[in-house]
Specification:
Elements lengths: L6 H11 L10 H13 L13
Amino acid sequence: MLTGDNTHTAEKVAGQLGIDQVFAEMLPENKVNHIKRLKAKGYRVAMVGGRYQ
């Protein structure tokens, strides 16, 4: 899970959802770069929530 939320909140939510890896307190550009790396490795990426401008 990639999120801009604080670590405590992110880990609590991830635990409830059964998510093993948490990357918290990320800036938008860091999330974009991480997603690009995952996609380059062939992973599918989904987004939940967020805002579009």
